[in-house]
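Re: Re: ligand-bound prediction request (bumping)

Still looking for help on this. To restate: I need the protein modeled with pantoate bound, output as structure tokens. Inputs repeated here so nobody has to scroll up.
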Amino acid sequence: MKLVHSIADLRAELAQHQRTAFVPTMGNLHDGHLALVRQAKPLGDVTVASIFVNRLQFGPNEDFDTYPRTLQADCEKLHSAGCDVVFAPAEKDLYPEPQTFSVQPPAELANILEGHFRPGFFTGVCTVVLKLFNCVQPHAAVFGRKDYQQQMIIRRMVQQLALPIEIHTGDTLRADDGLALSSRNGYLSAIERAEAVHLSRVLQSMVQALRQGPRGVSAIHELEDQAMQALRQRGWQPDYLTVRRQHDLQAPQDGDALVVLGAARLGSTRLIDNLEV
Ligand code: PAF
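Reply:
Sorry for the wait, this slipped through. Here it is.
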């Protein structure tokens, strides 16, 4: 496995290959990321993972400075998952000058849910993902379903900008108790870690209710309110627990395929999760 930092070295490394499969990450990797790498492998004749903590997608009060940088451990894990090339640019490699051009995703996709609570997040994500795509020039890229809204917005960006890249989605990996694997789980204390599973449990109970009961507007609002209340009573600060239609994350209408999504803070750690119904 090769580790490269500059765009020039990355391009030189990939020049001999026909078809690149790509997994972008911010590092601090867990088994969910490695599953994406394994999923990417058969999609190309070379597999690239990027590790870059992207300042543009962090808000002023978020964890950019404290986000764990664990390059050596990440490289060992990527090697074991069969990754061929790790692209780990320094900030000056990817942003040698202030990044004043940006990709502005449409408000109806990007200013709801995560984008409502993290203004500018999806502009930061789309800008860096497009730039990483330009550096890596992949034929296929794999994103995790845990970031449901992110993978949907990236699919739309690729489609509207006619990028010649197949976007694949990887399933969410979960711990034995059901907690979705996330780099931010490492912030949880032992007590919080035991409690954290309740985000997925509340989403699971919403899925059960939707499968068995009414799906009208008022039933859905009641379900969302009950779910928010259930987490609040356990000491969480939920941002949203909501039922949306899968294809554009708008409020559902009869017959739509549904997804339930949640984001909530446990202590100082913000966790997200989702389940398709
Ligand atoms: O999902 C992530 O880790 C990041 O948002 C991504 C896609 C690597 C862009 O920085």
